[in-house]
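Can't paste images in this forum, so I'm doing it all in text. The chain is below; anyone willing to post the predicted structure tokens underneath?
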Amino acid sequence: MEGSGWPGLMRIDIVNGRGYSDGTAQSELPPAHAAASRSSKGAKRRSRQMKRRKRVAAYRFYGVEGRVKISITKGFCWIKKKCSEIIHGY
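Text version of the structure:
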């Protein structure tokens, strides 16, 4: 199949009890499920990390939002106090 001239075709290995047709033993190659579980563990770890980052970003946003609200409230109180001082003289 390799020399047939068809690009993109996959090579098919014939497996017998002792090893693959190209001479490599089955024990030399990692099992397919091990590679899949490693990649799924990495994906889960990345997923958990992304969820954590989003959660931390939300906490930071809430903190910034609170500081902005406090700043605006203090600004209004300051303006109210200054206007009261101007009008009432104290």
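Helices lie at 32-88. The chain is about 65% helix and 0% strand.
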